[in-house]
Amino acid sequence: MKKLLLLLSLSVGLFATEIFEPVNMIDLNGTAKDMVYVESELVIATDMGHIEVYKMPQRKKVKEVSIPDVKDFMGDIMPARVMSTDKIGEKYLLLSDSGKGGYANLFVHENGKTVKVIGPDDHKPLIKARFIDKDHVLLGYLSNEVALLDLNSKKEKYRVQLSESKFSDFALNEDKTQAVFSCESGVLSLVDVQSGKLVRTLEGQNVDNVYKVDFKKGMVAAAGQDQRGALYNVKTGKGTYIKGSFLIYATGLSPSASKVAFAMDEKNNITIYDTFTKSKKAILKGQKSTLNVIIFKNENELFSASDDNTVMIWNTKK
After folding, report:
1. What whole-number distance in Å separates Cα of residue 249 and Cα of residue 21?
2. Most buried of 60, 245, 310, 314 (most Cβ within 10 A)?
3. For the whole model, what pTM was predicted?
C-alpha cells in the first residue's frame, strides 16, 4: 500500500503544472501599449509619445524615438499614445492617436529622421499597423477594414471592409502573405495581404469579442472576451477552445506553434498549453496589470507587456 501511494505521488509530481516567475524585467518611461520582437530587438510602444528599443538578451536600450505631443478634446497638450509599432531593417513604425476626431498619425523613423506619413487630415481611424516590406504597411481600421499602404506614394493599394463589427486585432503569418483579423463578433477573417481578398472565415469557437490573435505555422490563437482561448487550423478551418476563468486579453504562439500562451485568469497569470493535447504546461506568475502582449522569443523564452511600465521576461526551460 505504501509503495502504491509513493508511485501515485511521484506520478502526480511528474505531471504537475510548473510555476515560473519572471527572470528579468524592463522598466519603461510610460505604459506599454504594443510590442514586437524583430532581429534581436524588442520594440515597445508607450502611451508617453515614444517607442523604446532594447537589444536582447542584454536588455540594453539602444534607441528611443519620440513623436510630437497632441492636443486632447479639451485642448490640453499631452503625449501622443503610440498604439502600434514595428521594425524592418532600420525602419521603425509608430502609429499614434492624433488628438483630433479619433483619427491617427502614422510615422516612419529611419536614419535619425521621423517622417509623418498619415495625419488627422487624412481621416483614418487606424488601430494597428505592421510592415509587410520596406515600402508597404498593412493597416487595421477601427471599422474592421484592411488596407495596404504604399509608403512611397502614401496611397492605399486597396481598402476592404471585412465585416460590420468593430476591429480588435490582426496578426501576420511568418512570410507576411496572409493576415488574420479579429473583431467584436468573434468571427476571424483570413486575408490575402497583397490583394485584400478574404481567403476564409474562422468561426465557431469564440462567441464574443476577440481581443488578440496570433498566427504561426498555419495555426491561429484567439483570446476572447467569452473566456475562451481558441485555436484554429487555418487549412481545414476547424478549431477548438480552452475555457478560462476570466476575460482572456492576450495570447501568443511559440515559433513551432506547439505551445500557446493565454492570459487565463483575473490574477493576470499566463498559462502555457500544448496546442495539440490542450494539456497545461506552465503558469507564469508575477504580472501586475491587465496583459496586452505576449511574445514567444523561442520555445522556452517569452516577453509580456501589460497596462503598466514593466515588460517581463520569462524562461520556462527546465
Report:
1. 20
2. 314
3. 0.92
